[in-house]
Amino acid sequence: MSYHLKDTIAAIITALSESAISVIRLSGDDAIEIADKLFSKDLLKRKSHTVTYGHIIDPVDKAVIDEVLLTVYRAPKTYTREDIVEISCHGGVLVTKKVLELVLSAGARMATNGEFTQRAFLNGRIDLTQADSVMDLIRSENDFARELAISGVQGNIKELITPYLDRLLEILATIEVNIDYPEYDDVEMLTQASLLPRTIDLLHDLGIILKESKSGRIMKEGVKTVILGKPNVGKSSILNVLLNEDKAIVTDIAGTTRDLVEGWIKLDNVALHLIDTAGLRETGDKIEQIGIEKSRKALDEADLVIIVFDASEKRDAEDLELLEKTKDKERIIVYNKADLIQKPDEGIYVSALEGDVSFLTDKINAMFAEHTRALKTPTLSNERHIAAVRSSYLSMERAIEALEMGIELDLVTMDLNESYRELASVIMPKQDIDILDEIFSRFCLGK
User: Fold this and answer.
1) Distance CA 169, CA 173 (A)
2) pLDDT given for residue 136 in this prediction
């Protein structure tokens, strides 16, 4: 992507479809002047964050194109820290495109994907964690993901990472002073032995961040949950009850489910990406075989497996085979058709026929209750952030190994510098990270 920060950019920022309104956004030094060329009223003296009613007029033939509301936002208190104009027009596809065409003809450039948020970052309004969180917010598929994304947009990830950067920078700064300015009496003299505990403590704390990121990912992405069982044990019925809709076809005919049937459900403590499968039985039906192969793949990728047995029948060899194939998976064993038997005291018994799966949902909520802490404190959930912290952790591990071997401090700093760069890249691009500038901005060595 080529950056032209002096250009004024424009784009349709709502879905291009028949709707009540469409919004076209302009951002840049000339945003207000460009909009003024097309608007029926004078915009140049309008105050920031004001809405004006009027018309978009074609400057060539003076034809009225649309009746609009036009909002002016003046820098720097805007999303991009540039002047912004938003034109709210009627939501027809044709009229929206026509207004955009006039805006581009009047001097704006078509924005590239993500360019408004990119400008917010380049102009210092947001950091990389907030930019990532904007996209996470747009792509969130459940309320937990939305809450995590909002936390990132508010800057909580930066607040999480910054103290660890400060601790690591303090270690690096003290090493640099020891190496380059050993004559200073008031500088702490470091050795491998004195540096090792501080570095180990920092590594331990980074490890906690990574461990807790598992909770963040679970809250964000949900738990991929596969429902397995023999034909006609009620897998599809349970899926339908959980989703509160007739998502899967339910009949007495074995093998009705030929393909994966999927849906999302939000429980109290976790969101589930539910997958009803065609089972794993052997069959001569070629179409069903394709569904079974998909079931095997879904099982391999599953975070949680719900195995459904018929409570009114004894387990057979096929049931035992399911238990064997899922023994290494996080799983819940459910007995359906509990309405046909006298329920024992133990086990999870449900009746999909009666719409009663409360024991199952209670069990799942209990299993994932601990992960809800990710919603209460800043927690990593973005893949890029987690990967950067993991790389920082590995570099710090190498530094600790070098310290334990008694390697000279100037060589140890190579791994510590890399650890700092990786950790700082959560917040800013690597090319903008200047460790020496950071070090010497904190230490006054000329006094």
Assistant:
1) 6
2) 92
